[in-house]
Amino acid sequence: MSKTKDFLDSLSDHELSFFVTYKLSDYMYDTQQVIKDYVQARNLSQKTIKQFVANPISHNYENAKCCPRCGSDKLLRTEVQWTQTQNKSEITWIEIDRFNEGGMVYRDEIVCNICNFCLQDPNHKKSGREKWLFWDFFSSIFD
């Protein structure tokens, strides 16, 4: 479990709060217990965690390389097979050649490693960014 502890040590209290809120349930029971014990050892109460999540760090994330939900720069970039090719304007000439030869085209999928927010999904299967933008609009009405 030292890799888990090493990863948790690399997180700020803010990032750890988002991690516990959004990704704790992704782990097996034993690892969840390690994470919960670690959070307790860092003296993060549920109230503190809720305060961090309720007051996210705001960034101009369009040009920044950080998560718009939690503000972390710990992003997971994975090359995935591009299957949503309906929008032909997105295809480059090199990719057209690959398609014509029966080859596969790969694009980057970018997901926040702290809160699982999907910043970029070439196949449009995860709609996290659209939900976040809707929430920004909705919450701005009541500010």
Structural class by helix and strand composition: alpha+beta
Instruction: Say how many strands there are.
Output: 3
Shape: elongated
* Secondary structure: helix percent: 40-55%
Strand numbers in spatial order across the main sheet: 1-2-3
Strand content: 5-15%
Instruction: Compute the CA-based radius of gyration.
Output: 18 Å
Number of helices: 6
Distance separating the two termini: 43 Å
Descriptors:
single chain; 143 residues; alpha+beta; 2 domains; 6 helices; 44% helix; elongated
What does this structure look like?
The chain has 143 residues and is α+β, with helices and mostly antiparallel strands. It folds into 2 domains: 2-54, no CATH class; 75-141, no CATH class. The chain contains 6 helices and 3 strands. The protein has helices at residues 2-9, 13-23, 29-41, 46-54, 93-100, 128-141, and strands at residues 75-81, 106-112, 118-120. A 3-stranded antiparallel β-sheet has the order 1-2-3, with no helix packed on it. Helix 2 (13-23) packs across helix 4 (46-54). The longest helix has 14 residues, at 128-141. 15% of the residues are buried. Residues 128-135 have low confidence and may be disordered.
Topology:
Layout: H1 2-9, H2 13-23, H3 29-41, H4 46-54, E1 75-81, H5 93-100, E2 106-112, E3 118-120, H6 128-141
Antiparallel strand pairs: 1-2, 2-3
Helix pairs in contact: 2-4
How would you concisely characterize the structure shown here?
This protein is of the alpha+beta class.
